[in-house]
């Protein structure tokens, strides 16, 4: 950062008879200041995008290929609603941790009571059979979920 300060010693003014007043001329170069602000802005944009992506990824659990649906309506989802993911190999994930199918009802009940919700969102790979989905929905109903939503991808 450069600051240029010029002091007038008053000799030129004294020679002209104006008196001995000192004047200060200060110039601040704002180019380096602008560079710092732009770098900080870029760092903020990159880190905020990364934070949002990691939060979404940690909330969704495993990646699956959602089935497509023509008549699917929007799901009123709160950020705290638990998401149950069923992978292609029929592994179950509640949030980001793996769940034993024998302990599914208790895990769903625990997740619903932790967030104070009655809604369970189910994400599954499009290759998962209907029988597995019915079993999961039955366990969710027994666990206290009064609303169950199956997440799909929009049909383009």
Give the biggest sheet. Answer: 5 strands, mixed
- Low-confidence stretches are none
Q: Any idea what the shape is?
A: elongated
Number of discrete helical segments: 4
Beta-strand segment tally: 9
Mean pLDDT: 76
How would you summarize the topology of this molecule?
Layout (H helix, E strand, L loop, with lengths): L2 E5 L3 H6 L7 E5 L2 H30 L7 E2 L13 E4 L5 E3 L2 E3 L4 H12 L3 E6 L5 H14 L3 E4 L2 E2 L2
Parallel strand pairs: 3-9, 4-7, 7-8
Antiparallel strand pairs: 1-2, 4-5, 5-6
Helix pairs in contact: 3-4
Mind explaining what this structure looks like?
The chain has 156 residues and is of the alpha/beta class. The protein is 40% helix and 22% strand. It is built from four helices and nine strands; from the N terminus they run βαβαββββαβαββ. The protein has helices at 11-16, 31-60, 104-115, 130-143, and strands at 3-7, 24-28, 68-69, 83-86, 92-94, 97-99, 119-124, 147-150, 153-154. A five-stranded mixed beta sheet has the order 6-5-4-7-8, covered by helices on one side. The chain has a two-stranded antiparallel ribbon with strand order 1-2. The chain has a two-stranded parallel ribbon with strand order 3-9. The radius of gyration is 32 Å and the shape is elongated.
Keywords:
single chain; 156 residues; alpha/beta; 5-stranded mixed sheet; two-stranded antiparallel ribbon
Task: Write a short abstract of this structure.
Helices cover 40% and strands 22% of the residues.
């Amino acid at each position: 950062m450069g600051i240029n300060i010029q002091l007038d010693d008053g000799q030129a003014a004294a020679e002209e008879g104006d008196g001995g007043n000192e004047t200060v001329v200060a110039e601040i170069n704002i180019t380096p200041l602008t560079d710092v602000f732009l770098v900080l802005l870029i760092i903020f944009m990159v880190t905020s995008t990364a934070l949002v992506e990691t939060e979404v990824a940690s909330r969704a659990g495993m990646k699956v290929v959602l089935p497509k649906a023509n008549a699917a309506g929007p799901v009123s989802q709160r950020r705290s609603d638990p998401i149950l993911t069923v992978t292609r190999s029929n592994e179950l994930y509640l949030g980001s941790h793996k769940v034993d199918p024998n302990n599914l009802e208790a895990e769903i009940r625990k997740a619903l009571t932790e967030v104070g919700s009655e809604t369970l969102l189910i994400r599954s790979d499009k290759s998962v059979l209907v029988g597995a989905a019915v079993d999961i929905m039955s366990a969710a109903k027994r666990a206290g979920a009064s609303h169950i939503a199956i997440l799909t991808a929009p049909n383009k």
